[in-house]
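User: Predict structure, ligand zinc ion.
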Amino acid sequence: MLQNCAQKQENPLLTEFNTPFNSPPFDKISNEHYLPAMEEAIRLHKAEIEAIVNNSAAPDFENTIVAFDRSGELLNSVNAIFGGLNGANTSPEMQEIAKQSTPMMSAHRNEIRFNQQLFEKIKSVYDQREGLGLEPEQIRLVEKIYDDFARNGAALPEEQRNELKAINERISMVSLQLGQNLLAENNGFKLIIDNEEDLAGLPPAVLSAAAEEAKAAGQEGKWVFTLAKPSWTPFLQFSERRDLREKLYRAYFMRGDNNNETDNKKLFIELMTLRQKMAELLGYQNYAEYFISDQMAQNPQNVYDFLYKVWEPSIARAKSEKADMQAIIDRENKGFELESWDWWYYAEMVRKEKYDLNEDELKPYLTIDNVREGIFKLTNNLFGLTYVKRTDIPVYHPEVEAFEVKDNDGSHLGLLFIDPHPRPGKRSGAWCGTYRNGTWKDGKKVAPIVTIVMNFTRPTGDQPAMLSWDETTTYFHEFGHALHNLFANGRYQRTSRSVPRDFVELPSQVLENWAGEPELLKTYAFHYQTGEPMPDVLIDKLQKSKYFNQGFDNAEYLAAAILDMDWHTSAVNGETDVNAFENATLERIGLIEEIIPRYRTTNFGHIFGSGYAAGYYVYRWAGVLDADAFAAFKESGDLYNQELAAKFRKYILAENALWEGMDAYVKFRGHEPSIEPFLERSGLLEQLN
Ligand SMILES: [Zn+2]
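Assistant: Predicted complex:
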């Protein structure tokens, strides 16, 4: 016991942080602290759960629901710190810790999830929730916690619970195998070129990357192209060799459908059959109904209606894009019909002719500090936020900056870490996370600690870091997630800042709309040498470039989204032919043969796991929401309309504990989202007339 206490004192994860705002003491934490802290936090969490289960008093809101919601606080803190750093600043030792802790955590979670005694207590409060004099936020908390268990089958009789468990275990195996097969198919194909004539059209940067790839593959002196996007896309865009484009594109869309040992057809049917059974056991007609029932869209019909509405103008536009490209082919007397492997190549020509935007001209105006200032100004104009750089707060890497975020009345809102550049040990992409969630405890506000992590271009020599347009909008995007975390204001862990998957990208994507608005650009995009604001011609080109290839982009995406919905609303069996099923879908919606869905069934990684199964639609759904939300500001004639901003903050960002997705949206906007602002933004609106 004594020894235990001594250890605890030494472990900074298990003692008071004693830092400003109780932020994680990154300077004191080292790798040997994680596993003991996790073990101790799990032990504590188990004790908290046992105390709820063994409480001899009748289950009520406080002793069961609130106690459950509060439990695991230390574990959340330790996991947030370890998980955050393992993504942003990992090392072989941390990866080793992750290997050990991942099964430990999932065993612990499962133990709680399948704790039937705990569920019985929760159910007892749930059954009488209307008569307990609870407030709406409290009733909603009871319902969410009950649903979390029920959606895992806790409310079923024992025999069916066991059946469901067996199905879930098999689903994990099958989805793992589908993913591994896809990985093998991705890595299994290489286009090896040893004749310089076969490289016609490829820019120097693409060639040197291909030479590097060859070297890594033990083919020094040759050029290798793979199915990874950074290699694959430029080849399709620039290679003049039509036969080789076909070869590379075919290898891509045939992944998982090659009738070899990594073919995914049979396994995919098994996955569909298992998901169908699982949904039926839980009382749903099909998996899509199960998944969508707790989303903003509510039911599969709403998703179909939405997808078809965007589909019509998208495919109409795609057909006219095809005609533009065929005109180029005919003009050059090539004498062939456009095929799917030609699309990128000719689209690139259209881009040059119609949307000539040179990214390098933009960059000197978009230094990383300029862009951050633009975001600070925007959030100040909208919400009155101010930012104070803090150098007294421990960070985990010298490049990370800490800012105190102050609310419009000057009070402390939260802490924000910004970690901008790539380095070994940081995973790719950009994301937003929290080291502590914003909520309330014992009647006091707990301020959030938020982090945004990116992999933006580094400064070189005496030049500052200059961002591409894509990086610029990514910065705005992640900052939108950060605002959502900073404004979260629910009283309970489970419901504060908790939104469904088809809602979560609204706060982030909406901010991207402001990035390119001339009014805001004029206040942040200054040339790093001359101090001149971005010229109007450039702003104009930037605005127009949004329309490029939008028919194709939407059609190939929507075809995949509809395919996903079809699979998860149809009863399939061992006799179902994957390719016939897929073709029937594409024929029904009228996809043209020059376009192949962004993912075909056998390589649709998003729907192999549970994250986006019957949920691939969420990306465009969020696009429609963010365009419609931004349109509210435009329509008001004031990009920084305070009244709208206040409503957006309240209903969309702060009070997620109180409202379901669509109700929240309608409270902000006054009506349900319309697809027109999205179509207008993508240049698709005219297709409707
Ligand atoms: Zn996002």
